[in-house]
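Lab notebook, entry 144. We have the chain sequence and a SMILES string for zinc ion, and the next step in the workflow is to get a structural model of the bound complex before anyone spends time on docking refinements. Request logged below.

Task: model protein plus zinc ion, output structure tokens.
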Amino acid sequence: VERVTTEAASKMRSEGRRLGAARRQVIDAVAAHDGPVSAEQLAEELPEIHVSSIYRSLNMLEELGLVRHVHLSHGPAVFEVADRATAVRYLVCEVCGRAVAVSAEVFASLHRKIEREHDFLLDSGHFALSGRCVSCERDTHTAH
Ligand SMILES: [Zn+2]
Ligand SMILES: [Zn+2]
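Result returned:
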């Protein structure tokens, strides 16, 4: 957590901006989660910061490349520290909503194939990949 904040501070300084208390608190709160977190949840954890300031901080931290957002569902995007976000991809069960993080490496050969054959740079990290976990798939079949 401390390392992230220091990195954030130096990146912002290099951009001639000050890492304000609110932004520091926001990135620390994001980094304290093992997975992605919504702005709404951050607002609950940081009641002393106005919710509009949380959104502004998240946007700015994302512009600086310190935080990334991902869409796990039809709801609002969720945020994660950039290093972690670029290392994983999310699989989300469309029945129970469970999200599973898998290594981004798993998709490396798919990325290369699509770029080579379709001249397209796939971003498999912006949206979760949807499907069904095996137990939900089994339940659907027994119900029919
Ligand atoms: Zn499921
Ligand atoms: Zn988006």
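Notes for the group: Residues 69, 71, 77, 126 surround zinc ion (ligand 2) (CB under 6 Å). Worth checking against the assay data. The first strand starts at residue 37 and ends at 38.
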